[in-house]
Write a structure and sequence with these properties.
Structural class of chain A: alpha/beta
Radius of gyration of chain B: 22 Å
Distance between the termini of chain B: 60 Å
Shape of chain A: globular
Number of strands of chain B: 28
Helix content of chain B: 10-25%
CATH architecture of the largest domain in chain A: Alpha-Beta Complex
Distance between the termini of chain A: 52 Å
CATH class of the largest domain in chain A: Alpha Beta
Number of helices of chain B: 8
CATH topology of the largest domain in chain A: Spore Coat Polysaccharide Biosynthesis Protein SpsA, Chain A
Oligomer: heterodimer
Chain lengths: ~375, ~375
């Protein structure tokens, strides 16, 4: 039994992903064909023996509620553990008020009643695996007040825009948390993952809520940097952040690389998801598939190169799909060319001869759309 | 129980010794099929899709894997308040001591207490070694309409093969007047599929008598059905003409897998209204590498392919490395074909590695090569 409970924040109050987000919150985005982004933090917690987990939802909750269900598929003991869905959205008043702290304050009585001494907070727009129980042990041993997880990157000038970064001193003490403005290549991207005592967490959010309705947790923790002992802990392994359509597209395509895929999907650290009981994928004569990740339930008669294909996608004879992310149940008709696209669920590209965008600037085909 | 008040019992006790090394460690119903399934998923999913809530699975031979697999009834949605999948191995009983199941009918007789606890009106008997999709509720409607004591599902088989089956001879109303077990000179080509619906009250009486009969072999085909006929009970034939395959041998298991590769597979695995449910594997989707060449294949999640795959079925987590060529073959879960190896007309068992550059099977072999031990390759 872990000494901590888990919180998974909604990234939808910080980022806007063009197109996709109209239909579902970021947590609910499809990833690597058969997963949704929220599967990664929940599986990380479940594998770390954290079985009391709160998932904060903002935006249209339908798909997320359906996907999470009772949480049984995440290997969480349904009697001892609990997967709680906490809905909070004030976006219709003003997006400004849609902060994670406002969401926590909404559920403050529930948080106060939880008996675990520590809390692990993480986000659903970042994709990585992490043993949180090891992180908790390290945090307790260090005697720090708060530990923050970060990933060192060398491309912060053109990626991870809008993410938070950690400025660290030599002892890995956190001096400040600020937004990445893209003015330096080497940065410590803050993975929006915190470990601290529940009592400290409650103090910080209550204080922040009294001070300003606009505070996010990262901002509130930043204000404590001079008062509290806040340390950074470096994460190693696969890491991607979804902050806009381009980063969503890139994160998916990173997995075509076998080394990346094997790193993220370690058989000893399973990522759980809701099964749809779709049958295996059928490749017909004329299929030519290379460098791609393909989900079950597809029928393929055309060419697929450098793609991530969701469940139950039909690719017609002579169709060519390159460098694209195709979400579940879409249909790419005979002879159609699709390049550099994110094609949302249930879309049918059957009349258009080609849907092509410039490399590095992926286009978006709406859900249920017929082209 | 609710829904159609029919309880199902799956006879899953046989070893399936004609499947050779595949059933050394697991009973036949637990053998893998079709990329991600096990054979027993078919009757269990058919039950779930037919509105049957309670299923007993009668096990005997090497049942550890089968028991733990089947007991998780949630995989087929059979884990609600009034549904369940129950594993029923032979039990020690106070009056009689411990008896193994002496025959298919005895397996049911020894579980009369279990069946009675649900007081069903009808009992469906299934075997755990056939691949097919069937709506048992439609068969039950036929049973009720005919006001039968026993309905036997039958299918027409080629006349020359009829002597391998239990053959039913039915009149124009569908009433079975004669039953021949593996006859030399068959009177009909309607073969029993081993799927029976009994009116439980009637069967219960016959079973109680059969248990005490020292001359009985306690078998449905040999004893119970003849007894039903002799005592003038109403037996009717229910004709099923969909896909149905006995996968009792390596060749037929291979063939049934190959049947999935056609453009219009008769089994309709992708029918969203009649899915086959199975244990979910927590693996990544399938990963196809830069050197892959795949045509006519049935591939499931967790597979990693960077070689050539022609007309083959790959099961969960199977890997085909760069330069390897797999043709007309079945790769069972977790098997690996290493770089440059060639696999032709073979069935590679679970977790088996074919080493670098090794060759197994051949295009003109009479039967399918079963590879159940590691094949060493170049060092």
């Amino acid at each position: 039994m872990a000494k901590a409970f888990g919180i998974i924040t909604s990234a939808s109050n910080r980022y806007v992903v063009e197109g996709m987000q109209e239909y579902r919150p970021i947590s609910s985005f499809s990833f690597a064909g058969r997963y949704r982004l929220v599967d990664f933090p929940i599986s990380n917690m479940s594998n770390s023996n954290i079985d009391r987990i709160q998932v904060y939802i903002s935006g249209n909750p339908r798909s997320l509620v359906e996907h999470l269900g009772t949480g049984r598929h995440y290997n969480i003991n349904s009697k001892r553990g609990k997967l709680q869905l906490l809905f909070h959205d004030e976006g219709n008043i003003n997006r400004l008020y849609n902060t994670d702290i406002a969401a926590f304050m909404d559920s403050i009585e529930i948080i106060e009643r939880i008996h675990e001494e520590y809390v692990v907070i993480t986000t659903s727009n970042m994709i990585f695996t992490q043993d949180f129980s090891a992180l908790l042990d390290q945090h307790i041993k260090s005697e720090a007040d708060i530990s923050l997880l970060y990933h060192r990157v060398e491309n912060a000038h053109d990626s991870f825009r809008g993410c938070n970064i950690l400025n660290l001193n030599r002892q890995k003490g956190v001096q400040s948390i600020e937004t990445n403005m893209g003015n330096s290549k080497d940065r410590n991207i803050f993975m929006e993952t915190y470990v601290m005592k529940k009592s400290i967490f409650l103090d910080i959010i209550k204080k922040a809520a009294r001070t300003s309705s606009m505070y996010h947790l990262s901002g509130a923790v930043n204000l404590e940097a001079s008062e509290l002992d806040i340390r950074g802990i470096q994460h190693k392994g696969f890491f991607a952040a979804v902050t806009d359509l381009k980063s969503y597209y890139d994160a998916n395509l990173m997995l075509i690389n076998q080394e990346n895929a094997r790193n993220l999907f370690d058989p000893k650290w399973p990522i759980y998801t809701q099964t749809t009981d779709s049958c295996p994928t059928q490749y017909f004569e004329g299929a030519d598939v290379k460098n791609s990740m393909i989900s079950n339930g597809c029928t393929i008669e055309g060419t697929i190169e450098n793609c991530v294909i969701g469940r139950g996608v039909h690719v017609g004879k002579g169709a060519v799909i390159k460098n694209s992310v195709i979400l579940a149940y879409s249909r790419i008709g005979k002879g159609v060319l699709v390049e550099n696209q994110v094609v949302d669920k249930w879309a049918r590209i059957i009349h258009a001869n080609e849907v092509v965008s410039e490399a590095g600037k992926p286009g978006y085909v709406r859900r249920d759309d017929t082209l | 129980m609710s829904q159609n008040n029919m309880l199902a019992m799956i006879l899953a006790g046989g070893r399936g010794s004609r499947l050779l090394d595949l059933t050394n460690k697991v009973a036949k119903p637990a053998v893998s099929f079709g990329g991600k399934y096990r054979i027993v998923d078919f009757p269990l999913s058919n039950c779930a899709n037919s509105g049957i809530n309670v299923v007993g699975v009668l096990t005997q031979y090497e049942s550890v894997v089968l028991n733990s697999y089947v007991a998780a009834g949630g995989q087929w949605g059979l884990d609600t308040k009034d549904s369940g999948v129950f594993v029923l191995p032979p039990r020690e009983k106070a009056e009689e001591g411990f008896n193994v199941y002496r025959g298919t009918a005895d397996a049911i007789s020894q579980n009369i207490d279990f069946i009675d606890s649900y007081s069903p009106d009808y009992l469906l008997i299934l075997s755990g070694d056939h691949i097919y999709k069937m709506d048992y509720d439609e068969m039950l409607n036929y049973h009720k309409m005919q006001n039968a004591d026993l309905t036997v599902a039958v299918r027409p088989v080629p006349w020359k093969e009829a002597s391998r089956f239990g053959i039913m001879f039915a009149d124009e109303t569908g009433r079975i007047t004669e039953f021949q077990e593996k006859p030399k000179e068959p009177k009909s080509n309607l073969a029993s599929m081993g799927i029976y619906i009994f009116t439980w009250k009637t069967l219960r009486k016959v079973l109680l008598a059969d248990m005490k009969n020292p001359d009985s072999s306690h078998d449905f085909g040999n004893d119970v059905i003849p007894e039903f006929l002799n005592s003038g009970k109403k037996l009717v034939a229910y004709t099923f003409d969909g896909y149905w395959k006995d996968v009792g041998t390596i060749d037929s298991l291979w063939e049934a897998n190959m049947d999935l590769l056609g453009k219009k597979s008769e089994l309709k695995m992708d029918d969203p209204n009649w899915k086959i449910y199975t244990g979910d594997a927590s693996t990544l989707p399938q990963l196809i590498g830069p050197n892959a060449l795949i045509d006519r294949a049935y591939i499931t999640q967790g597979c990693i392919v960077d070689g050539e795959v022609h007309h083959s079925v790959l099961f969960t987590g199977a890997e085909v490395e760069e330069g390897a060529v797999v043709t007309d073959s079945v790769l069972m879960p977790g098997s690996v074909v290493e770089a440059g190896a060639v696999v032709t007309r073979a069935l590679v068992a679970d977790g088996i590695k074919i080493g670098k550059g090794a060759k197994v099977g051949s295009a003109d072999s009479e039967s399918i090569t079963l590879v159940a031990k590691r094949v060493k390759g170049e060092e």
